[in-house]
Structure formats: structure tokens, C-alpha cells
# Entry
Amino acid sequence: MSKITVKECQNVEYKRSWKDEYLKWICGFANAQGATMFFGVDDDLELHGLQNAKRLLEDIPNKINTTMGLVVDVDLHEQNGLDYLEVTIVPSNVPVSYRGKYYYRSGSTLQELTGTALTDFLMRKLNITWDAATEKSATIDDISPEAVKYFLNAAIREGRINHSARDLSIEQLLRNLHLINEENGQLTLAALLLFGKDVERWNMTVAFRLGRFGKSQADLIIQDRIVCPLIEMPDRVIVTLRSKYLVSPIHYEGLRRKEPLEIPEDGLREMLCNSLIHRDYTGTFVQMKVFDDHVTLWNGGTLPPGYTVENLMKPHESHPRNRLIANVFYLAGFIEAWGRGYEKIREAFQKENLEIPVFEEVRGGIMATIKREKFMAIQAKGGDIENGKDVVDAVIDNIVEKLSERQLIIYKLIKKSVIDNVVVTAKSLASKMSLSPRTIQRDLTKLKDLNVIKHKGPDNGGHWIILKDLEL
# Structure
């Protein structure tokens, strides 16, 4: 029996005969990278021929066009007296369905797309991202000036935005960032999550969940739920980790005292940014779990087609799930532009001779596992920090040591105001303590930087609340 010479690969498929169920495969190829299908040839390239090849030459293109609206090339070939068909499917630039269902050819398998996978596919084919959707009920008043200022300071400092941007109105700045739809003038979801005053109003899973566990996930010791504009999220998470979840071993460079985080901060920050940029915001929360010997960071959302966890650490093109959010993070200097994020993570860990985090696809998302090598070394040397509770106690003690007597009094006044349900402001504190507003503001900034208190509301008219109970 004769053979044909074309070899099978991802974009070439052989079928011994024609069956109408292969219309699903044609749909899947059209939604992917296209393909060439041969009918009358088996997987061993043995030519069997088709008895009804001339009739199928007309039937196949008609069925494809009727059921999917596609036009394909179907060619009749003859070899050693045997007829076989070659069907060429080009990739479609719009989503293609067969009998109301969407199929996608990935590797050597045909997948029916449903749920989040279908949503991702449709948006990708239409060249739109979730964060570009608009919210007609939102207005500029829903945008936090403080969050916008935070972004501008970072972007100007990085040299990625000209300092003249400070003179722009918030609306004009958002337009320049493509965060307002030019056709209808509505704010995008990206704008509301990046800079919103109340981000949970627009997405109930925007919070970052952080937990400290003992021996297992059933042993939850402490937890935090961080809610803030996305542009501020990486810093807020880092501050919280530093204050009560991770350790900062002390060393000296000359006479200068250094307290670097046990996990390389550059690499950790890159992973945090990736989890916010690439996550599926129609799913559940980003979650970080801190154990004695390791940390896990998980965000929902699968990798783009053709990407695997194995090649993430190699040079690759950047395909952010949420392009508008990614662009703002880039302008702020929080991420690299050309898919170097994972390379930056690797370099940060290698610089400190630490194991590179392990990435894997788990539960419909991406999970990074980071070993706590420095923390475990402290334990091995008989360090005082032996479990999650000791970590919290040690950190709180460390915070108290960093505060002056006046700052502790300010903390107690704010804490009492929360208990008494009384609004406390910098002005009221200055009056009560007979101090200048500038002195009070410096002390408040110190407490805020240690993630002990938080300012809510606008600069004029806002108030302070407690984030961490120092149990004084």
C-alpha cells in the first residue's frame, strides 16, 4: 500500500474516512492556528482512498459553510488509482461555532470551550480584554485623587510620564491612559479598579487575601484582607508581609543597619504584579499563604494559548490578560514591558543564592511556590521565631520599639476614637495634643508607613482608622 509524503504535526491531521463529526475538528482548527486535513489517509500515512471522493468534494465545503459560515479549500488528489481529499482550514479572525458550541484545537486534543475558557477565547478573538469593559453608572467622582497622585509620582519618578502630566485633570489623564471609552465617555473597569475610591463596588473579588498557617492549611493563625486601588496593592501587600508575616534578618553594611525582607523584594514584587495583571477578575481572590517553610501565591486564570509553565522563565512575548491594567503598571515602573518579568524573578533569587520559585497550573490558575530558606535557617540556628504566633508577636514588639512616646499616644487616641465611634483627624489630634499640624502629620506618616493606621476619605475631611492592634 502506498504512502503520501506529508508528515503529521500539530497543523496537519489525517483521517481514514470522512465523518460529519469532523466538522467539530474543522471548527477547532479555525479557532486556533488553522490546519490541513487529509481524508482517505491514516495516521501511518497509508493511503486508503475514498470511494465517494468526488461527491465529498462538493458536500464537505457546503456543510462547512452552512454550519459555520467558513469558506475552505477542498482539493481532490489521486495516487496509484486511489482518491483522497485535502482540506485547508485557515485561522479565523472571528470566533467560529459549530451548532452553537465553540471548539479549539490545542496541541493534539480538541477542546470544547465553556465557562471562563470560552470567555477568554471570545475576548481574545475580538481583541478585547475584560478590563476594557465600561461601567455606565460610574463617574469621575468615583476615582480617588490620592490613588491618581500615587501613580503620577511613581510614573514621573521612573521617567515614563512627563512631569507636565501633573497639570492634567483626572479625566484627561484617564483619557490619555485609554481608561475612558472614547465612544461613550464611560469609565473602564480598569480605571475603577486601578484608581477607584471603592474598588469592591465594581468587583467583589478584587481584595488580596493573605494568611499565616501553621503545619497545614487547616491551621490558620492570622489573616488579612487587603482592599485598596490596584495601583497601591503591591506596596500594601509588601508592607503587610513585612509587618507581620515574613522576617527581615538584620545585618550591617559598614555602619548602616540593613533589614531586607527574607524573600527578595524585587522578585516578590514582580510576582505580586503578575498576579494582579494576569488574573481572571471574573473568578475568585488572589491568595497568598505563608507557612513555616514556604509561601504560595495563587491567582485565577490560565496561561495564554501556546504558553506553558515550563517556558515562562525563558524569554517570551508578553500577553497580559488585562492590557489596560498592565499598561498602567508598566508606566508606574512596577513591571517590565517585554515579557522579562519571570527573568527578573529568577535573577532576584539567584542574586541571593536562593531557590527559584516553582510555577504550576493549579485549580484553573497559576501558583508560585517560594521556599522560606532564610526563615528556616533562623529556626535551625535556634532563633526565637518558631511559629506563626511568634512571628506576629515579634513583629508587633518590633513596631512598638520603632515608635516614640508621642507616636504611641497618637496611636492610643486613634484607637480610642474607633472604640467611641468618633472621627479623628490630624487637625483634631494637633488641637488635643497642643502640637503643630506638621509635627502631627510626620507622626501619622510614620504610623501609616508601618501599616499601623490608615487614612480614609479625601485629604480634607478624611479620618484615621486602626489597621493593626498593638495591644498596648
Observations:
- Residues 430 and 437 are 6 Å apart (CA to CA).
- The longest helix spans residues 53-68.
- The chain has a mean pLDDT of 86.
- The radius of gyration is 29 Å.
